Amino acid sequence: MSLTNTDLHSSLKKYFGFSKFKGLQEGVIQNILNDNDTFVIMPTGGGKSLCYQLPALMKEGTAIVVSPLIALMKNQVDAIRGISEQHGIAHVLNSSLTKTEVKQVKEDIANGVTKLLYVAPESLTKEENVDFLKGVQLSFVAVDEAHCISEWGHDFRPEYRNLRGIINRLGDNIPIIGLTATATPKVQEDIIKNLGMTDAKVFKASFNRPNLFYEVRPKTKEVDADIIRFVKQNQGKSGIIYCLSRKRVEELAQVLQVNGVSAVPYHAGFDAKTRSKYQDMFLMEEVDVVVATIAFGMGIDKPDVRFVIHHDIPKSIESYYQETGRAGRDGGEGHCLAYYAYKDVEKLEKFMSGKPVAEQEIGNALLQEIVAYAETSISRRKFILHYFGEDFDELNGEGADMDDNSRNPKPKEEAKEDVVKLLSVVKDTKEKFKTKEIVRVLVGKTNAMITSHKTDEKPFFGIGKDKDKEFWMALTRQVLVAGLLKKEIERYGILHLTEEGEKYLENPESFMMTKDHVYSKDDSGNIVVAEKSNGAVADENLLKLLRDLRRKEAQKREVPPFVVFQDPSLEDMSLKYPVTMQELLNIQGVGEGKAKKYGKAFVDLISKYVDENDITRPDDLVVKSTGANSGLKLYVIQSVDRKLALDDIASAKGLELPELIKEMEQIVFSGTKLNIGYWIDEILDEDQQEEIHDYFLEAETDSISAAVEEFEGDYEDEELRLYRLKFISEVAN
For the residues 308-327, what does the mean pLDDT come to? Predict the structure, then answer.
């Protein structure tokens, strides 16, 4: 059946109201309409369902869609019914239907009304259903969530295994469409093999989501405080926090509520009514945050989720990609933050210990990948995409700087000789070991496997003992991503040299290795909560830099670090950003003697940090302080109180009016009132004031450029800035 492009586009418009296709959709649909087997790999949210819905509506006969999730089937059927006057255009066939309903479904199919029939795999195994479907015209069979076929997919379902046999019973040469959002090469191979669609045309969309920012932080005892702080910094934005256990879900939701965050818990232990209530509250934006187990999110399509936090590390990269993929579906901001501690991994390993050996092997192999992701120091986006068999240019690719490792690159060191050692050990051990064994051979440690192959008697045993196990693990990961080694999937991770790896051994060249973050097994460092600071937040990155500097200064002077400055002083610095010696004296626990003795290096570091990171310093130093700038602030506040003309205040201090306004903004934005109504009355009449007041009352942002645009140039930039000061003073302070 060949269709012109115009037919396709007019059908798209007619049925779905879209004027153009997204990504690979058009090619996929064209291929299905030509009765070819098709395999579609597309990330969640990429528009997979349309790929089989549209051709089903256009072709003769009924399309069968095999799907594992009843809830999703129902949603899709409702959606299709919504675009057609015929109720029977789409049906579900599953065990929840009454006899009468089943009869109705079969009638509609027999009469050619039904275009899409959604079935669970179990329903297809029933004889009476198979016999019935044999006798009707079928357009194609679509297997949605096809990764369920593979043990390596994140939700394996044994009933998916025999789909091919069932399809063969339904008729000859029925085209098959496999669809999945899971793209690891191994899962792909499994699907194609199992569905017997070796000739299928494969359509693979990119798995890169350039708008998502990936970050991993060490998980410490203070993880709750850290999460609260993060959520508060993103107040008013929607977010999902994933935990592994139901108990933890409820505890964390409670902690958030107590700390003034609107949050609800969600897990499969709640009854259906409660679950749907919480789900709706989130969708309707009555609450900002859902704390959930992975049961949440299947079929949730909220486009403006702005952050996804993993309180516990997930079981595989697959799951992680799926769960983080719920952020920023609208293409806007999406922050994906995971907390990682090795303890969690050990917990997950314990869970697996009672399972069959093959399952344990797979589970551990997947877990090692996620550990490697958490500990890696290379671009996290590159790491994820490499896992999905996709190359990524970490310098110029879309979203290249959107992860913590790319923003704050770790130091690199030349590792050419070490790469040669690693590759030659893989080669000399005849490519029969996994990473763990290879690393043991390098550092010269035996285990049963190594002794049985007599590898410990070989001359290369222990050639890398000058470095520790962690170093070699990190190097192996980076060499894998660089494509010099590959893992054999069938046998759970045995290392092989690639062609590139062979070439490298013949002609070694520079290999810059990034130093990995070492998350020690008992990483319980406490995250600082700046208590005395009325809820303000200490800057973690700066604090880390200040601590490093304190250690260096202490070493230089051969004194303990606390002699230089105590912890509360550093915390206060990372809160107030003092950039002059004068401001440093306002920091808790810093007297003149200390400031003179140690202060300069700290002030220089903070000043450089403030410049490089574009930080707006919080002025909680207003009036209370005796800092350098505060004399001016005090003068401004006193002069405004005396209702002096702003021009006069500015010229008395040798400032231009815009500079004075800037000063005033600092005062007002840090919470101090400035009553400049007397001056506003001079420059704007009542109606004008009312108009601007109403605008700021309704506006989403206090941006001046947005206000200038709104008023189409009726007001000067300066007038709007001054009125904004009056507004914030009255309304916010």
Answer: 90
Domains 5-204 and 212-407 in one fold = yes
Specify whether the CB–CB gap between 270 and 243 falls below 8 A: no
pLDDT tier at 338 (50, 70, 90 boundaries)? very high
Q: What is the mean pLDDT of residues 301-319?
A: 88
Order the strands of the 90-93 sheet from edge to edge. 90-93, 116-119, 62-66, 138-143, 176-180, 38-41, 201-204
The rounded percent of the chain whose pLDDT value lies above 90 is 22
pLDDT of residue 618: 56
How many other CB atoms sit within 10 Å of the CB of residue 133? Answer: 22
Q: State the pLDDT at residue 518.
A: 59
- Reading the block at residue 92, the tokens are 């579900």
**In whole angstroms, what is the distance from residue 613 CA to residue 517 CA?**
22
CATH code reported for the domain at 630-732: 1.10.10.1390
pTM for this predicted structure: 0.58
540-612: CATH number: 1.10.150.80
Name the least confident of 47-51, 103-107, 111-115, 490-494.
490-494
Statement: residue 115 has pLDDT above 90: yes
- Range with the poorest average pLDDT among 4-8, 27-31, 203-207: 4-8
Q: How far apart are CA 174 and CA 151, in angstroms?
A: 26
**Nearest C-alpha neighbor of 372 from the set 218, 511, 543, 516:** 516
Residues constituting the chain? 733
Supply the DSSP string of 105-159, one letter for each residue: HHHHHHTT--SEEEE-HHHHT-HHHHHHHHTS-EEEEEETTGGGGSTTSTT--GG
CATH number, span 212-407: 3.40.50.300
Domain ranges, ordered by start, for the chain: 5-204, 212-407, 416-510, 540-612, 630-732
Superfamily of domain 5-204: P-loop containing nucleotide triphosphate hydrolases (3.40.50.300)
Which region among 28-32, 109-113, 294-298, 527-531 has the lowest average model confidence (pLDDT)? 527-531
| 471 CB-near residues (< 8 Å, 6+ apart) | 418
Contact 182, 153 (CB under 8 A): yes
Q: Which amino acid, residue 352?
A: M
The token pair that represents 577 in the structure block? 């950003």
Higher pLDDT, 590 or 391: 391
**Dihedral over Cα of 443, 444, 445, 449: its sign:** positive
pLDDT at 291 over 90: yes
Angle at 253 between CA 251 and CA 259, to 5 degrees: 105
Please give the CATH topology (third level) of the domain spanning 416-510: Arc Repressor Mutant, subunit A (1.10.10)
- Distance (Å, whole) CA 554 – CA 271: 58
